[in-house]
Design a protein that fits this description.
heterodimer; A: alpha+beta; Folate-binding fold; 4-stranded antiparallel beta sheet; two-stranded antiparallel ribbon; 2 helices; B: alpha+beta; Gyrase A, domain 2; 7-stranded mixed beta sheet; binds zinc ion
């Protein structure tokens, strides 16, 4: 069982999250050649070890998250909001309460 | 104004069910729910939160996963940029600051209490509901039988907000799960 420490909700079970995909992909501009889009959409490293992923807390706060996870041990090293605005809001609130 | 009909009308019968002895779980439906969702932008969140807190006579907005309440109403922090406002109409919010949406008809609210309410919910939700982790006025959204629900620990009991279209099937799950503890429906 994977548990993800959501920056808004706290530690929650895997069943509340949806996997989003590889967070390390830089998508090309909309008018880029089809080959570039093919590579960005379909080609993956299939990493054994630490990987950067996106997850959505679909049954919780619905926030998109970046997660750094080990694909073998499932150990999670870091979780942070994918949207910078959300990150800013949550960071400011944490500062205020500490 | 049109007469509101509970989503559980015809499926809800008060009484005493299941295991004998003291009823471990009490269920009741919160009638005529008044619920507005208020969303802000990242930069306007402090101002909108302040406005909502003041609208119920409180000093500061609720932090992540928390609720504040007074006799006028309650504010639940359900998402990083979203609040639920209960029991009163939202204050006027400029479009640049945020927006509000009336969700009164979109949720069915079941109040759960009784000596075994926490244990009962523990069978249904993947949440740590122990007092230290989920004290009074904590709020959490989660999934119950794959249906997105929101739970508010209120006054020693719990308010469970269920999407209206799933209210009957979740009610059946609640009813069946509560029988082992002894169920009282009021
Ligand atoms: Zn979350």
């Amino acid at each position: 069982m994977i548990r993800i420490d959501c920056p808004f909700c706290g530690l929650r079970d895997h069943s509340e999250f949806s996997y989003g995909g590889d967070a390390s992909i830089n998508y090309p501009p909309l008018d880029a050649p089809a080959e570039q889009w093919h590579d960005a959409v379909f080609l993956r490293e299939n990493i054994r070890g630490r990987q950067l992923e996106t997850w959505q807390h679909t049954s919780g706060c619905r926030m998109w998250l970046n997660v750094e996870r080990d694909t073998v041990s499932h150990e999670i090293f870091a979780v942070w909001p994918a949207h910078r605005g959300y990150g800013r809001v949550l960071h400011a609130e944490k500062e205020n309460t500490e | 104004m049109a007469n509101r009909l509970s989503a559980l009308a015809g499926h809800y019968s008060p009484g005493r069910f299941g295991a004998e002895g003291q009823a471990g779980v009490h269920l009741s439906v919160v009638a005529d729910l008044r619920l507005h969702q208020v969303a802000a932008w990242p930069d306007s969140l402090p101002a909108v939160g302040q406005l909502l807190a003041n609208s119920i006579g409180q000093a500061a907005k609720p932090g992540p996963g928390c609720a504040i309440s007074s006799e006028q109403g309650a504010v639940l922090r359900i998402e990083p940029l979203k609040f639920w406002l209960l029991n009163l109409d939202p204050p006027t919010i400029e479009a640049e600051q945020g927006c509000s949406l009336d969700l009164s008809h979109s949720r069915t609210c079941v109040h759960i209490d009784g000596p075994q309410a926490q244990e009962f919910l523990g069978r249904l939700l993947p949440l740590d509901l122990r007092a230290a982790a989920f004290p009074d006025n904590r709020v959490a959204s989660s999934a119950l039988h794959h249906v997105g629900v929101t739970l508010w620990h209120r006054g020693g009991g719990y308010d469970l907000f269920i999407p209206r279209g799933f209210a009957v099937s979740i009610w059946e799950v609640l009813h069946a799960t509560a029988l082992q503890f002894g169920l009282e429906i009021s």
